[in-house]
């Protein structure tokens, strides 16, 4: 009787195991694959994590129309006005830097809501850091320095020679647009710099955090920065990923009576040169447009 009872129990366990395997094949395996991929992507800093999250939310709402979607997995975005006010509440009212496409919406809002004397666009990133250092020495306040990660090289000298905690201990809040982030498609000139960005910041001894793409998280990021300022009085960096901010259109646009586009200006320059002349241009729209226009001139 004991043997028979044992066999019956084993059979029941086997049946349950088979049933679980079947369920896992339909939903569990796929879910585990997604979670495994998400964990791997998160570990490698891959932003495609959110694509899997949105895909799972979409499929949940399709298979179970009556159920609410998992809203905690849906990607949010940061309104420039919200981040601006959060920074203002923490005493930040001075901005300087070099414009970046990933920061354009936030910078546009700053332009519309900050006096010209409190927002300075500098010729290069090193100038921005130096101006920020001077502002802190004059006021005791912490400036916000914004730039693209490709400009970190220009900022190294003043960051290490002036603001480092082993030199003059100048707190600066850096907002750095992360072009060429690993796992994201971008222009070729950004790929190497993008991969080296976090290592470069670490080598300079500048702690950094990726700015969250939801408004509650940005508050925590700012508070973490201020905790660092209190303890170490040195630069702190917020890395800004692509599509972090909601769109914002600049209202305070400058008008002039002589509108000249970049393309028209390049055409005029090319018309006064020969095919054998060498050009030096920025790695961006200007260089690509220059190349295309010169190619057309050949035909």
UniProtKB/TrEMBL annotation:
InterPro entries: THDP-binding, Thiamin_PyroP_enz_TPP-bd_dom, TPP_dependent_decarboxylase. GO terms for molecular function: carboxy-lyase activity; thiamine pyrophosphate binding. It comes from Reticulomyxa filosa. Keywords: Decarboxylase, Lyase. It holds the Pfam family TPP_enzyme_N. The keyword Lyase applies. Gene3D superfamilies: 3.40.50.970. The keyword Lyase applies. This is Thiamine pyrophosphate enzyme N-terminal TPP-binding domain-containing protein. Residues 82-193 form the Thiamine pyrophosphate enzyme N-terminal TPP-binding domain. PANTHER family: SULFOPYRUVATE DECARBOXYLASE, SULFOPYRUVATE DECARBOXYLASE SUBUNIT ALPHA.
């Amino acid at each position: 009787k004991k043997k028979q009872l044992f066999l019956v129990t084993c059979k029941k366990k086997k049946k349950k195991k088979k049933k679980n395997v079947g369920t896992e094949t339909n939903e569990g395996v796929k879910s585990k694959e997604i979670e495994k991929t998400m964990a791997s992507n998160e570990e490698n800093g891959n932003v495609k994590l959110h694509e899997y999250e949105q895909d799972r939310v979409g499929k949940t709402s399709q298979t179970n129309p009556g159920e609410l979607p998992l809203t905690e997995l849906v990607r949010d975005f940061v309104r420039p006005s919200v981040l601006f006010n959060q920074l203002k509440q923490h005493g930040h009212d001075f901005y300087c830097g070099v414009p970046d496409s990933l920061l354009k919406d936030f910078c546009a809002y700053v332009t519309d809501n900050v006096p010209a004397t409190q927002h300075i666009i500098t010729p290069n990133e090193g100038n921005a850091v130096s101006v920020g250092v001077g502002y802190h020495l004059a006021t005791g306040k912490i400036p916000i320095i914004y730039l693209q990660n490709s400009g970190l090289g220009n900022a190294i000298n003043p960051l290490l020679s002036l603001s480092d905690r082993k030199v003059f201990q100048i707190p600066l809040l850096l907002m750095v647009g992360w072009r060429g982030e690993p796992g994201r498609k971008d222009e070729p000139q950004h790929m190497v710099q993008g991969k080296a960005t976090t290592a470069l910041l670490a080598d300079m001894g500048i702690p950094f955090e990726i700015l969250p793409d939801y408004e509650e998280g940005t508050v925590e990021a700012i508070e973490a920065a201020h905790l660092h300022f209190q303890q170490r009085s040195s630069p702190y960096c917020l890395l800004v990923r692509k599509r972090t901010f909601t769109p914002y259109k600049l209202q305070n646009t400058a008008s002039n009576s002589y509108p000249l586009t970049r393309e028209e200006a390049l055409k005029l320059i090319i018309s006064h040169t020969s095919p054998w002349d060498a050009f030096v241009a920025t790695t961006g729209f200007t260089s690509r447009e220059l190349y295309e226009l010169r190619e057309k001139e050949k035909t």
